[in-house]
């Protein structure tokens, strides 16, 4: 009997430990999402999406889109900082939805990019906070169907005209 009890306790502990990765705190969920984004861990980002968001895009498409865009612009030194939400803001007032502002900075082939955006979190049916996906998470202002393209253009040389004397 003691071996059965010990086995049961071990199984319960394993189950509880496995569930600890999920967060019922929206700030923790947002910070985990931003951390995965900084580290280009797009699979982990996808795993934090709401079921309704995940139904709109496959994991493979989600990962490929982020990867192609950030590799295409040669993004490096990515810094994503959560910004504070003022206490009087409506962004923190609902029980099932929260908006969290963030700032993203990165060096790219086109120079430094800096932008601000908001991540929307919603509680799922199980009470866990999940990310509601919008295209603006890739770049603030981005909408469905938008693409990101980097193109290097060769400058044409201007004519040099002399207007002075050669004396």
TrEMBL record:
The keyword Magnesium does not apply. Residues 1-21 form the signal peptide. Residues 25-146 form the NTF2-like N-terminal transpeptidase domain. Keywords: Signal. One of its GO terms (biological process) is response to antibiotic. It comes from the Bacteria. The keyword Signal applies. This is NTF2-like N-terminal transpeptidase domain-containing protein. It comes from Brevibacillus panacihumi. The lineage of its organism: Bacteria, Bacillati, Bacillota, Bacilli, Bacillales.
